[in-house]
Amino acid sequence: LLSLWAYSFSAALPLLVLLNLATLVVVGLQQWHSRKSIKFQPQELADRLLQVQENERHRLSRELHDDIGQLLTAAKLQSEWLKRRLPEDLQSQCTVLCNTLNETLAKVRDVSAILNPRQLASLGLEASLRAHLLKTL
User: Fold this and answer.
1) CA 101, CA 73: separation in Å to the nearest integer?
2) Which of 22, 38, 79, 99 is 20 to 30 A off residue 128, Cα-Cα?
3) Torsion over CA: 110, 111, 113, 117 (sign)
4) Domain residues of the chain, as ranges?
5) Mean of the pLDDT values across residues 10-35?
6) CA gap 110, 103 in Å, rounded
7) How far is 24 from 38, CA to CA, in rounded Å?
8) Where are the beta strands (DSSP E) in 1-137?
């Protein structure tokens, strides 16, 4: 009985070795393929980073323009309303407040435009540059 088992084992040994070898090859190929798919190309990473930055700039621009811009506009309107109802000796102080709010609102709009140049997207580079030059000169 022992000799029959030894004969069966020796006959099956090459088949077992071949199956183990095939298993190792398949596992090795799977690991190689998974490592290859994990590696991102530098250009893909750079493109993704630029897209994330662009999305964040658009979000910040919208928040500045919509939220903070609205609040500053409301404060400016309220200060102008208040100025019309104050005694003359206090109106000059309210004028300073109105001017400060106007200046702050203009700066918020400028920062919002820098973060998300809507004009550039809608008009193109040449027209946007012309408009900017006309505005600043």
Assistant:
1) 8
2) 99
3) positive
4) 51-136
5) 81
6) 11
7) 21
8) none
With the CA atoms of 108, 111, 115 and 121 taken in that order, what torsion angle do they form, in degrees rounded to the nearest 10?
90
**What is the SS3 assignment for 87?**
coil
Contact assessment for residue 112 and residue 57, using Cβ atoms and an 8 Å cutoff: no
Average pLDDT over residues 46-73: 85
- Residue 15, both tokens: 């088949």
Other CB atoms within 10 A of residue 112 CB? 20
- Would the pTM count as exceeding 0.85? no
The tally of CA atoms less than 13 A away on the side-chain side of residue 104 is 16
Which tokens hold the place of 40? 């991102």
User: Measured between alpha carbons, how far is 27 from 20 in angstroms, rounded to an integer?
Assistant: 11
